[in-house]
């Protein structure tokens, strides 16, 4: 299934990360953290604001933990983000 975001939105696949403490305890994603999240751009809308960000499919972006709208497509979790939800590009 292909989805094309409308306007100034992008579709991002969040990257999951497990954090391991010094003693070897694995903290899952569900642990309460206020960190920013990273995701890989899967599709980009054609709005003017999103074009100014110069994003391309495959870029890794940083966004707020509670930003965007979550959606499940083919049993894979994605997020729709607006242009102002994107904090930066991870290089």
UniProtKB/TrEMBL annotation:
Q: Name one GO cellular component term.
A: cytoplasm
A GO term for molecular function: protein folding chaperone
Q: Which UniProt keywords apply?
A: Chaperone, Cytoplasm
Record keyword Chaperone present = yes
What compartments host this protein? Cytoplasm
Keyword Transcription carried by entry: no
Q: InterPro entries attached here? A: Chaperonin_GroES (IPR020818), Chaperonin_GroES_sf (IPR037124), Chaprnonin_Cpn10_CS (IPR018369), GroES-like_sf (IPR011032)
Pfam families given for it?
Cpn10
CDD domains from the xrefs?
Answer: cpn10
The UniProt entry, under Gene3D superfamilies, shows: GroES chaperonin
- Coiled-coil zones: none
- SUPFAM superfamilies reported in the protein's UniProt record: GroES-like
The record's principal subcellular location, in a coarse class, is cytoplasm
Q: How does it assemble?
A: Heptamer of 7 subunits arranged in a ring. Interacts with the chaperonin GroEL.
| Family listed | Belongs to the GroES chaperonin family.
Q: What does the UniProt function comment say about this protein? A: Together with the chaperonin GroEL, plays an essential role in assisting protein folding. The GroEL-GroES system forms a nano-cage that allows encapsulation of the non-native substrate proteins and provides a physical environment optimized to promote and accelerate protein folding. GroES binds to the apical surface of the GroEL ring, thereby capping the opening of the GroEL channel.
Q: What is this protein called?
A: Co-chaperonin GroES
Q: Which organism is it from?
A: Candidatus Doudnabacteria bacterium RIFCSPHIGHO2_01_FULL_41_86
């Amino acid at each position: 299934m292909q989805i094309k975001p409308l306007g100034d939105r992008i579709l991002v696949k969040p990257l999951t990360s497990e954090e391991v403490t010094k003693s070897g305890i694995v903290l899952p994603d569900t642990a309460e953290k206020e960190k920013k999240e990273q995701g890989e751009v899967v599709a980009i809308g054609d709005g003017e604001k999103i074009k100014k960000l110069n994003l391309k499919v495959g870029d890794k972006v940083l966004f707020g933990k509670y930003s965007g709208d979550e959606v499940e497509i083919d049993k894979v979790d994605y997020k729709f983000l607006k242009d102002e939800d994107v904090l930066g590009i991870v290089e």
